[in-house]
Amino acid sequence: MPNYPHIEDYYARRRELVEFGGSDNELNIRPAFQNCLDAYCREHRERLVLIPELKTAGNVVPDGTAKDTLRMVRGYWEAKDSHDDLDAEIQAKFNRGYPKDNIVFEDSETVVLVQNGDVALRVDMSRPGELHWLIRRFLDYELPSIEEFRQAQAQAQFKADLPAVLENLRQSVAASEEGNADYRVKAAEFLGLWRRSIGPGVSEADVREMLLQHVLTKDIFHRVFDEDQFHK
């Protein structure tokens, strides 16, 4: 059977808080799930941290906010009382301006994951495997702002790396021209095809530049056309 140590710890801690605190209301047992979520955050591949009661841009204060090492928000958690109507409490929070992009609501019996304004999962918290899956899905989700940030980083890194990549490619082509007989045959055939199709003014340097462009744009063509026959 799969083992879910953080969830087992949550069950034990919740029982302890009810036994010694004499109540199963939200304020008494909330630390149990907070510790569970924080444990999942800290072992996440991006090392997230759950920060309690952090005010959001909408001037509301969820019980917990998951953030990454760049201090960017990854999701929210809100605990409710099991004696209340969870769905009604969720709607009341949204009416107050709580974020809807990635937030978990739980009342120690049922947990609801809302992503992009819709209910993504609803799980009975007594089922450890399903609870584990919901928490992982919650923490793995990336808000649009995170995705945009990553794309901007990737573009900036590509621009920074491009001169070195081009230089390495030029060196590889030069080495093939020098010591690869098969390459020289194919390059000559391609040059002949170009001169017949375009004109006699096409040079070996033109063929070399076309090769470099094809190497650099292979992944782009594959993603756009979802097949690489054109590129080949």
Task: Give me some keywords for this one.
6 strands, 232 residues, elongated, 6-stranded mixed sheet, 57% helix, alpha+beta, 7 helices
Describe the structure.
This protein is α+β, with helices and mostly antiparallel strands. It is built from 7 helices and 6 strands. A 6-stranded mixed sheet has the order 1-2-3-4-5-6, with helices on one face. A hairpin with a 2-residue loop joins strand 5 (110-115) and strand 6 (118-124). Helix 1 (5-21) runs antiparallel to helix 2 (26-43). The chain is elongated. The two termini are 48 Å apart. The mean pLDDT is 85.
Summarize the structure.
With 232 residues, this protein is an alpha+beta fold.
User: Termini distance?
Assistant: 48 Å
State the share of residues found in helices, binned by percent. Answer: 55-70%
Shape: elongated
Which radius of gyration do the C-alpha atoms yield? 28 Å
Number of separate helices: 7
Give the averaged pLDDT, no decimals.
85
Task: Please outline the helices and strands.
Elements: H1 5-21, H2 26-43, E1 49-52, E2 64-67, E3 73-79, H3 86-95, E4 102-106, E5 110-115, E6 118-124, H4 128-140, H5 144-179, H6 181-197, H7 204-225
Helix pairs in contact: 1-2
